[in-house]
Each structure stands twice: as structure tokens, then as C-alpha cells.
Amino acid sequence: GGQPRSVQPFSDEDASIETMSHCSGFSDPASFTEDGPEIDEEATQEDLEYKLKGFIDLTLDKSAKTRQAALESLKNAFSSKILYEFVMERRMTLTDSIERCIKKGKSDEQCAAAGLACLLCVQMGSGIESEEVFKTLGPVLKKIVCDGTASIQARQACATCLGICCFIVTDDITELYSAMECLENIFTKAYQRDRDTNGVSSTHNTVLHISALLAWTLLLTICPMNEVKKKIEMHLHKLPSLLSCDDLNMRIAAGETLALLFELARETDADFFYEDMELLTEKLRALATDGNKHRAKVDKRKQRSVFRDVLRAVEERDFPTEMVKFGPERMYIDCWVKKQTYDTFKDILGSGMQYHLQSNDFLRNVFELGPPVMLDAATLKTMKISRFERHLYNSAAFKARTKARSKCRDKRADVGEFF
Fold first, then answer.
1. Which of 134, 165, 190 corresponds to the end of one domain?
2. Residue 332 host element (H or E)
3. Which residue numbers delimit the Interferon-related developmental regulator N-terminal domain (predicted)?
4. What is the span of the domain harbouring residue 278?
5. Structural domains counted in the chain
6. Do 30 and 385 contact (CB within 8 A), yes or no?
7. Alpha-carbon torsion (82, 86, 90, 92), positive or negative
């Protein structure tokens, strides 16, 4: 018999308890206490696996609401934990459940199932087992992506899932090109809409076009150089038309894709020359300094920030390096390819991204971080910060921030009085 339906959803508490028992010490030195109670890791792991088995059974329930809740709980667990052995033993059962939910479920259930498929592949990494999962799910995902009668949200989720799963598992170049062609057929429809109008009008299909474009861009980063050249020739002159779209997210997606294409083009050909460079930089500069009153302040701020970086990439071949901290480690994002990859997995893993960067062999391999860093108890103890020290640090930071803000306010007040 299956597990009883009274099984509680996987919550953040479960994640925090389980994470603490394994690794929270080196993810946050301040989390150690002087005389904390010892946690029975084996019992905690057994309890977690018992819950997860219950959720897997509930993905077959007659109630759509119960199935969706089970899928969401599994997603939360997979994003916040490394469950490699548990997943490997049940990968075919999970694959069957995901396939059934995508084929027969409604929009929300299909989205949850597609999200779980991404996390399943992230858990297993690249290998034969992942390839088997993708061989089953790939055709189903393509069918939903291309199905005009399916909901936009489901098609959007399946397009993202297709890109991520293909990025993780495929060693077959024909499978890679097939997935890219499927995604191209979706987002190139946004080009066609620009033929009769000066600007691309925002429609309910825009979110689908954005997801397809971003998934396609992710796959482009692992293509052979000769294929990259073909794709650049095909799309580099058409993508600027999407910068006129009414939708902010489409403008940003198009801008970041352009920056990435220029980066790849210059890698393949140091003397790369773009004919319409002046017109493109003019467009990018206008977006980087946009002050239209009919747009929300938050949107304008976000747009200006993104397009300043895009303009620098196109004009000056420059990228503003970002640093990502996770535990005692640091990772520098120093190019558009790396940024695109990081942003994609961060959207899927959410708050679990740092934990996976520390412990997930596949992600560490993608970002060239080497094997996971293992710290012994003595090293962790030296990293520990006492509660009193944390309090002093926070107080000092708060005072400095208050002073800085006060100065800014004083300057604004003076300017106001002067005029």
C-alpha cells in the first residue's frame, strides 16, 4: 500500500534541519553554537526519505491538487538537498510520474512536473542515467512546447525544462541541434511580428518567447564553434528588433543575448565586424538612459542597469565581474556565458543555489570549481564567530549605513533649498 495522505509537505524547516546536520557549518560559520544538541543524522535522513517516498506515491493520486502538492514538495526537497543515491534508485519511477503529469495534467501541474524534471537532472548530473530520463521526457517536452492548444505557462515551463535538461545530459550533437531548432521555431515568431509594425507589440505569447530565447541561448554556449558562427549570422541582425518590445523582460533577454552573441563572435573571430554597429549602439544607449515617464521607476532602473552592461560589452568588449560567495569559497563571474549559465540554474534552484555550488559535483564541474571542499571540525571551529562579535559588526554596519544615508538626504535638502 501507498503512504497515507496525511504526509506533511516538505517545508523549509525540513530543509534547514537536514542541511544543518550535513553541511550548514561550512555554509555559515556563525551557525555553530557552543553546546548545541547532537543530531542523529541517520534518523533524520531516514525520516526525510520516508517523507519523500510518500510524495512520490502521491504523484499518482486521483486528485490533481494532491499530485501538484506532492510535485512541489519534491521540488523543494531536490532544490535544497543533495539526494543523489535516493534519486538514482527511483529515477525511473520519478520519470514515469513526471511524464504522466506533463501529458495528462492541467497547466499548474504541468509546470510543477517540468520544474521537477529539471531538478531531477541537476541531482543526477550528466551521465547515462540522465540520458535515459531525457530520452523519455524530451519528446513529451517538445510536443507541449509546440502545442498551440496547451497553456502558455505550461509551454513556457517545458521550453525552460527542455533547454536545461538538454544542457545537462546530451552528448548527442543531433539531439542538441533538434532541441535548439524546436526553441528557435518559438522565439523567431517574435521577429515576424515586427515586420508590419515599428515596435513589437506585447502579447500573451511574449513570456513563451522569452523562455524559449533564454533556453536557446543556454544551449548555444555548448555548441561547436562552426555551429555558433552559423547561429550568429542567422540571428545577430534580427535580435535588435526585439529591443523595441513593450515587455521589459523581452528587452532585457534580447539585450543580454546580444551581449553573449558578440562575446562568442569575438572569441571565434578576433577581427569580427558588425555592419550596423552604430545603429545598434544608439539603440542600446537609448535604453541605458531611458527616462520615459510612462514606465515604472523600478522598471527603468532595472533596464538602465542591464543595458549599461550590455552597451559596455558591445562597444568596449568589457564585462563587470561579479563575485558569488558560498561558504568559505568564492566564484567570479567574468563573462556573459558564465552569467547566463549561473542565472539559469539560480532560477531553478532558488535559495538552494549556494548549497548546490558547495556540494553538487555536476554544478562544480560546470563552473570549474573542482571537487567539493571538505572542512574538518577544527577548521570550522576557527571560522566560528561569536554572537557578541556578530552583534558588534551589525551595529557598526547599521551606524555607517545610517550616516551615509543622512548625508545623501542632507545634499538633496540643500539642492532643494538652493533652487
1. 190
2. strand 329-333
3. 19-315
4. 224-318
5. 3
6. yes
7. positive
